[in-house]
Write a structure and sequence with these properties.
The protein is mainly β and 67 residues long. It contains one helix and six strands; from the N terminus they run ββββββα.
Length: 67
């Protein structure tokens, strides 16, 4: 799995996005807790309760909200 750091305006790391082998992604906060998932097949972002947050990849928004 590839992991990409997400940074704020001050260049501090606020979370990470991990790519999975099937094209899906998951968002982690700075403490490595999962805050959401992106399902590439359905093009939907879901929270940790697997409730749909929105269409498209909105994982960065979930990481920012988790701060």
């Amino acid at each position: 799995m590839a992991r990409t750091a997400i940074r704020d305006q001050r260049n501090f790391i606020i979370g990470y996005i991990e790519d999975t082998s099937n094209g899906d992604q998951r968002a982690l906060d700075i403490g490595y807790r999962i805050v959401g998932y992106y399902d590439a097949a359905s093009d939907r972002t879901k929270d940790t309760g697997f409730r749909i947050v929105g269409m498209g990849n909105q994982l960065v928004g979930l990481i920012e909200r988790a701060r």
